[in-house]
Amino acid sequence: MIIKEVNAKAIKDSRGDKTIEVSIKTDVGLFKASAPQGKSSGKYEVKPYKKNVDEDIKTLKKFSDYFSEDIIDQFADLKIIEDILDGHVGGNSVLALQYAALKALAQEHKKEVWQIVNPDLDKSKSSFPILVQNCIGGGKHSENSGAKNPDFQEFLLISQIKFPKLAWEKNKEFQKQIEIDIKFLDKNFSHKKNDENAWITSLNEKQIFDLLLKSKTPFGTDVASSSFFKRKKYHYLNPMLDRTPEEQLFYISNLIKNYSLFYVEDPFEENDFESHSKLLKKFPETLIVGDDLIVTNHRRLKKSIENKSVNAIIVKPNQCGSLIEVKRVCELAKKHNIKLVFSHRSGETDEDILADLAFAFQADFLKIGITGKERESKIKRLIEIEKSLLK
């Protein structure tokens, strides 16, 4: 396959912010793809754009002719795109172009995108990622009209149902039910949802965990600790108090014990490999998940493995802006029995290729919102893959 022409434009993500959509022209047609954006971004993520979206769009158009000299025929050839664009644009622009190239390759070879990503995947031995779905929100993802938010960023339902459609239906029902429960406890509740279509509330994390116990399904949380860590302390606002790293370890440990938390993401700030390690040692059966700690970065994952800091990692392709790097990270994690959690971003588009990637790399989990067309597109794509394999 030869990329004859590259074009790009700015589109709006689910928050209404500008992000990039890239289109390419090949022998078999026109293909387009877009990249999401995060609000709660790790310090060690690559920049989404060299300067801004508009500058990257101009650069991609200038580089349009560069791609016509190379043949891209398989996943490994996506390295060509990275080499050509290296240092000239940000991670989002590289990623959107790689996504479009994968779609073109799938069309040319008359295969699914996931088959291009992992042509050796044995369908008979494959499994679908378990859905990790954001039900109630807080932190940077929620604005609560002057009222307090939960300090933790996400409260997650993790149904053990291995069929995506059934798990999704169950979680949608519970999200509707919990709306009634929140209203009863939260006088400030306005029935609004946040960036990820999770309920906005002024309840604190303990009150929310009490509600989630009613779900009778495993649940967890994204603490997003880096977002409220300053001057060597964790600054809680709901209720207002400060915790040292040692006190944070004690507090998170108690939450895991008291609520049987199945999943705890970023319980400590993004440089604290040691505290993550201590928590994992105490609770080896709980998923201690690294996001800001690792940012889909091979080097940081290697350090985490050396420190025995986590037993699961978030994979967000635009954190590293390279599908080649995503593959390296996934391979290293699997080698060390670290579970993979492919994840959306708070500023999403209707691009659905994340589902293909999660299935291709045989991720253990797919972290996604329950409602909202940008979230639902990924779940629906996963259901499509499931149906195609059952034929």
Describe the structure.
There is one protein chain. With 391 residues, the protein is an alpha/beta fold. The chain has two domains: 5-117, Enolase-like, domain 1; 123-390, Alpha-Beta Barrel (TIM Barrel). Helices cover 38% and strands 19% of the residues. It has 13 helices and 15 strands. It has helices at residues 53-62, 78-85, 91-108, 113-117, 164-185, 205-212, 245-259, 273-282, 298-307, 317-320, 323-335, 353-360, 373-390; strands at residues 5-12, 18-26, 29-34, 130-137, 154-157, 199-200, 219-222, 229-230, 233-237, 240-243, 263-265, 287-290, 312-315, 339-343, 365-369. The strands form three sheets. It has an eight-stranded mixed barrel with strand order 4-5-7-11-12-13-14-15, surrounded by six helices. Helix 2 runs antiparallel to helix 3. The longest helix has 22 residues, at 164-185.
Q: How would you sum up this structure in a few lines?
A:
This protein is an alpha/beta fold. The protein folds into 2 domains: 5-117, Enolase-like, N-terminal domain (Enolase-like, domain 1, 2-Layer Sandwich), CATH 3.30.390.10; 123-390, TIM Barrel, CATH 3.20.20.120.
